[in-house]
């Protein structure tokens, strides 16, 4: 049957393979109206709350704070990538928005900062799809920027390789299929290459299917049948248009599976399995047994596509992305307040109706919804009033969340160094990855280290003749080691020195005399992560595949719903999980779920905002 009704019914089955949608659960969410926000009578002009920048360093939009109105359609807690993406999209939809951020700079784990003439990324520096032509990217954050009419003014530098340092040798991982196969052959032999080829073939339809379902069409109600209707054909072609024909539809089962289940079907070589675990860990902070097969299939497909692939680094660092998102919020009338921690979500009759700020106990009302970009642990433990916490205890949701594993935290080393005598920027390269010992596992304590030298692509982030260096243990630092230590104590200083020594040892694989070159040094710990990014126990995020679960309740489908009326979630504590593109994707999912399906359709059928939209 090829009728429209049959095609939509068939699509419903395939879509639920990607993400369950509560088609019949409860009443439809109230829709935000494009009313103007009611301004506070004491409103002040936008201002910089605090800056660590040098006086001659220009500050972007993410450093400037607004006074929040007394009432808006939607209040958002947290100006991370997810919160800002959601806010910018809601503004584009005509919804009034107020964003309250605790830190003095927007961006969450992706914010930037300055010291001693050097500019630093606090977290991510590895991106794909930022340099694509307008409307042609598959990167979630770039699609948000295209949707709201924002750009990276200084663009993005491109490169195509990552240097890896293993216990058994080094290799340059070029974004090229044959280069990758050659590396596997060198380290693990021809049989491992054959196993990789079989896995790659199995991943093909999954990668196509993952691309066929854009974030921009996702929503948490029955309207998804309308917003996703235009993507039925690409999904059908992806799953059934390959060499297996109709049998390809069987591959839909892998869209909701962990990558390890697919690996087990094709790969037995120990070294290759370790490499695949490492690839997952770098992308999601999780090994293959807790990483989505669809996400990894998409990642490899994009990296090894026949027309070639490039990685991107935004000129101005990750803060350039944050600044662009903040501009996107403000250009549509939204407000972003920095240094404005929220003490509690305000409820009336068990419905979220606003936020209460710690400063002077001021309340900002939300006519339609409250969105939390805080982690699920910070939201449920710290932001809910007692009677709502009790409701979660009575329902079993609190116990359910307590059983969920969290990713570990980080130790970071941020350095400003003398670059005299170092190899040319093109030879030194921006990104490096060090594995200390395969036997420890890729998630072993201080065993995998990510290194970024962004000034090899963007020299403006350091004085002439200098480099900015950032290295961190990749989500492999247990918070328990630091829990009882007091910041500023001698014990804390000793633990920071020990952590720095491990980080320096990894850096010496790239720059052997790194310690003699240091001019600026900052060591960050799980306590730093918890303090500045407001992350529960400094965690990287949920230690589960967020395409399969909802941490707010076992009975809830993956997505932005929290099981609490008027309260939505965004960011890595919801679908699809950890990472900048994923957090931006959650911004689409949440914003779409708040507005009417007709507004959502207006975006999907308007100017093109993505290659797959």
Explain what this protein looks like in three dimensions:
By secondary structure, this protein is α+β, with helices and mostly antiparallel strands. It is built from 20 helices and 21 strands. Helix 2 runs parallel beside helix 19, helix 3 (140-148) runs parallel beside helix 11 and helix 5 packs antiparallel against helix 8 (259-266). The chain is globular, with a radius of gyration of 23 Å.
Compile the SSE list and pairings.
Elements: H1 4-18, E1 47-48, E2 64-65, E3 71-77, H2 81-92, E4 97-100, E5 112-115, E6 118-121, E7 127-128, H3 140-148, E8 156-159, E9 161-166, E10 169-174, H4 177-188, H5 190-212, H6 224-227, H7 232-240, H8 259-266, H9 270-284, H10 293-303, E11 311-314, H11 318-331, E12 335-337, E13 342-348, E14 351-357, E15 363-372, H12 376-383, H13 386-395, H14 397-402, E16 412-418, H15 425-428, E17 431-435, E18 448-452, E19 466-473, H16 490-507, H17 514-517, E20 518-524, H18 526-532, E21 567-569, H19 580-594, H20 597-604
Parallel strand pairs: 3-4, 3-15, 4-12, 9-17, 15-21
Antiparallel strand pairs: 1-2, 5-6, 7-11, 8-11, 9-10, 13-14, 14-15, 16-19, 16-20, 17-18, 18-19
């Amino acid at each position: 049957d090829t009728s429209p009704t049959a095609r939509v019914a068939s699509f419903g089955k395939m879509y639920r393979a990607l993400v369950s949608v509560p088609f019949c659960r409860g009443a439809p969410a109230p829709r935000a109206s494009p009313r103007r926000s009611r301004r506070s009578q004491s409103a002040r002009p936008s201002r910089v709350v605090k800056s660590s920048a040098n006086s001659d360093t220009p500050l972007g939009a993410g450093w400037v704070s607004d006074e929040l109105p007394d009432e808006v359609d939607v209040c958002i807690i947290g100006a991370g990538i997810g919160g800002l993406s959601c806010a910018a999209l809601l503004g584009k939809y005509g919804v009034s928005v107020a964003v309250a951020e605790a830190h003095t700079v927007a961006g969450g784990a992706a914010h930037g900062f300055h010291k001693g003439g050097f500019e630093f990324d606090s977290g991510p520096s590895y991106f794909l799809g930022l340099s694509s032509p307008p409307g042609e990217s598959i990167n979630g954050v770039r699609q948000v920027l295209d949707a709201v009419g924002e750009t990276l003014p200084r663009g993005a530098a491109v490169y195509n390789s990552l240097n890896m340092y293993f216990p058994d040798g080094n290799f340059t991982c070029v974004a090229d299929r044959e280069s990758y196969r050659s590396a596997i052959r060198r380290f693990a032999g021809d049989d491992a290459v054959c196993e990789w080829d079989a896995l790659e073939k199995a991943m093909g339809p999954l990668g196509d299917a993952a691309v066929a379902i854009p974030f921009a069409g996702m929503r948490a109600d029955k309207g998804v049948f309308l917003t996703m209707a235009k993507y039925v054909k690409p999904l059908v072609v992806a799953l059934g248009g390959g060499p297996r024909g109709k049998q390809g539809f069987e591959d839909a089962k892998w869209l909701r599976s962990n990558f390890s289940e697919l690996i087990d079907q094709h790969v037995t070589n120990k070294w290759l399995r370790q490499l695949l675990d490492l690839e997952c860990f770098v992308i999601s902070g999780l090994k293959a047994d807790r990483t989505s097969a669809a996400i990894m299939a998409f990642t490899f497909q994009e990296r090894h596509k026949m027309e070639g692939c490039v990685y991107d680094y935004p000129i101005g660092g990750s803060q350039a992305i944050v600044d662009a998102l903040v501009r996107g919020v403000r250009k549509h009338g939204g407000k972003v307040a920095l240094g404005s921690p929220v003490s509690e979500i305000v409820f009336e009759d068990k419905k979220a109706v606003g936020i209460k700020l710690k400063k002077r106990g001021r309340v900002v009302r939300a006519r339609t919804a409250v969105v939390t970009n805080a982690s699920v642990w910070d939201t449920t433990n710290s932001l809910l009033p007692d009677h709502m916490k009790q409701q979660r205890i009575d329902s079993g949701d609190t116990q359910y969340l307590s059983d969920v594993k969290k990713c570990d935290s980080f130790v970071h080393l941020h350095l400003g160094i003398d670059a005299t005598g170092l190899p040319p920027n093109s030879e030194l390269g921006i990104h490096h990855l060090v594995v200390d010992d395969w036997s420890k596992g890729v998630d072993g304590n201080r065993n995998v280290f990510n290194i970024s030298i962004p000034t090899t692509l963007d020299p403006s982030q350091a004085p002439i003749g200098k480099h900015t260096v950032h290295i961190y243990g990749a989500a492999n630092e247990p918070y328990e080691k630091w829990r009882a230590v007091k910041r500023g104590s001698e014990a804390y200083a000793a633990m920071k020195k020990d952590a720095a020594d491990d980080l320096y040892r990894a850096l010496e694989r790239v720059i052997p005399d790194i310690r003699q070159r240091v001019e600026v040094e900052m060591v960050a710990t799980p306590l730093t992560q918890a303090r500045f990014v407001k992350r529960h126990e400094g965690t990287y995020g949920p230690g589960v595949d967020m395409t399969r679960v909802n941490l707010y309740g076992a009975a809830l489908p993956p997505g932005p719903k929290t099981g609490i009326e008027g309260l939505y979630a965004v960011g890595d504590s919801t679908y699809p999980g950890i990472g900048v593109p994923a957090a931006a994707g959650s911004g689409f999912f949440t914003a779409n779920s708040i507005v009417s399906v007709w507004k959502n359709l207006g975006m999907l059928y308007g100017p093109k905002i993505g290659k797959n939209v």
